Amino acid sequence: MDQGKEAGESTKYRGVRKRPWGKYAAEIRDSNNHGARIWLGTFNTAEEAARAYDRAAYAMRGHLAILNFPEEYPMAGGGSSSSSSSSSAMRGGKQVFEFEYLDDKVLEQLLEDSERRSKKN
Length: 121
Description:
- This is AP2/ERF domain-containing protein.
- Belongs to the AP2/ERF transcription factor family. ERF subfamily.
- One of its GO terms (biological process) is ethylene-activated signaling pathway.
- By secondary structure, the protein is an alpha+beta fold.
- The protein has two domains: about 15-70, 2-Layer Sandwich (GCC-box Binding Domain), CATH 3.30.730.10; about 85-120, no CATH class.
- Helices cover about 25% and strands about 25% of the residues.
- It contains two helices and five strands, in the order βββαββα.
- The chain has a three-stranded antiparallel sheet with strand order 1-2-3, with helices on one face. Strands 4-5 form a two-stranded antiparallel ribbon.
- Strand 1 (about 15-20) and strand 2 (about 25-30) form a beta hairpin.
- The longest helix is centred in the last third of the chain and has 17 residues, at about 105-120.
- The radius of gyration is 21 Å and the shape is elongated.
């Protein structure tokens, strides 16, 4: 935490505030209930409070949640600026890719590559 910050101001973690007496409060907004605040508790360290926020965010929003520690959750988006993600699996002896989001340019490139391969064979 920066030396210049006063007690009660936010920390470097999402959903965490430092209380005037030195403890850290965690809360999250519930988008399904008009942005109502959900109190997650008071913690001794900012990291504990941030992990409480992450648990609640992941429970509410799954892999779309913006987390403080995305590396601790499977398939977490992590707030990165990337607009696409994918996963792959073997099905019926062929590798299958699942894409969550692709822009038109990427889709066109994939189709063109597929057409080129079909013409070669």
